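Lecture notes, unit on binding sites. The following record was shown on slide 14. It pairs a sequence with flavin-adenine dinucleotide.
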Amino acid sequence: MMKKHDVIIIGGGPGGSTLAALLAKQNVNVAVFEREDFPRFHIGESLLPSSMPIFKESGFYETLNSGKYIRKYGARFADCTSHDEVYFGFEDGFNAEIPSAFEVERKEFDKDILDNARKQGATVYQPVRVKDVEFLDTHCVVTTNKGDQYEAKFVIDSTGRDAMLGKNNKVRKIHPDLNNVAVFAHYFGVKRNEGKHEGDILIGMLPEKAWSWVIPFKGDITSVGVVCSTKIFNAGTDLEEYLNTMLAKSPRVKEKMAGAERTTEITVISNYSHVSETYTGKRWMLIGDAAVFLDPMFSSGVHMACTSAKLALPIILQCLKENATFDDSGLGQKYKEDIDRGVNRFHSLINLFYKGDFVKDMKKTLTLDNVRKGFTSAVAGDMWNEDNYILQRKVL
Ligand SMILES: Cc1cc2nc3c(=O)[nH]c(=O)nc-3n(C[C@H](O)[C@H](O)[C@H](O)COP(=O)(O)OP(=O)(O)OC[C@H]3O[C@@H](n4cnc5c(N)ncnc54)[C@H](O)[C@@H]3O)c2cc1C
């Protein structure tokens, strides 16, 4: 006989695991299908303070705060031609309750966050790949790579960039203007800030709107990457030389990298930015990267995945209770509007970065107290907070 769940989530990354934990805490019979055995590598290593209240609600914060991950108190953006930098210290934002986040190796973080979903009562099938979903009037039938079938009232696509249901339903599109390529690896021996600022993320500006990231993990390993437009990407075959040459173009990053040794293979990912025309059908919903991903510049991916899980929760609960569908109830449209409010603000912030001279522009802009606090909160991911001065003034 077919096994039944109220909700099936495809994908056990941060979005799927968060939604599973939140639903399980509401006594919903929820199952997650994750195709990979964890631990495994994944990109997306710098978290934002605004995710912390969601992790508290999902029961995950205790693990995150147990000492295995390094704290991130701020984000530094360093100029391309000088040692100038602009610093966003999260304690200085509008939301003083969330003054920090963490830098995480995703091989540990993803295992921990999926374990939390189990702990909260979700059923996890792993490693099991969902091969097919059939949508019927009253329910959905999920078929796995093992040939097993499962029934649920709703199926949530949290498959990340694979966007399984988004692609099947032809609602997913490559972003019209954010077409970038990222080249990255982990390194040993990258120089660090002292004390409290050890876990700050450093963004080093490079010529032609390219940029680099330096994300220190607990211990000796640091994630380092370079992002540039696909139009100017010319790495050839020697990715090592490309990385070294690009990283040396930022005075601050060059200093940090002196004597560092690469510990992992170099990975290249391109054209990762995309949007979806809609995030729901009658009995399906997209969350996290499966719905939308803009750009890694402001480390917003995991936060958007967890925020979409939080916004999805009341909608799924209401549809289960009233035996309604996402579309007929109008709640699917509300879900899209709720998500896009924050997504559009992140997009404006990203545009400020790519269309101007971010370090110089910000140094001028941040002199006013309310504006500095507002931008600091925005960089901390607080894009759904209507109390933020710059959001009220529609600066973003
Ligand atoms: C270059 C780059 C740098 C980035 N840096 C950052 C950063 O610093 N901070 C940040 O917050 N974000 C960053 N991101 C974004 C971040 O990687 C994602 O936004 C985040 O991982 C999205 O979480 P998710 O749960 O939606 O999807 P994912 O984390 O991708 O999880 C999806 C899961 O679904 C599983 N899956 C897929 N298909 C199936 C299937 N058919 N059956 C079962 N399981 C399936 C996969 O195995 C995977 O575990 C970056 C992205 C890029 C491209």
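Take-home: Residues 10-16, 33-36, 42-47, 129-130, 158-160, 162, 164, 182, 269, 272, 288-290, 293, 296, 299, 301-303, 305 surround flavin-adenine dinucleotide (CB under 6 Å).
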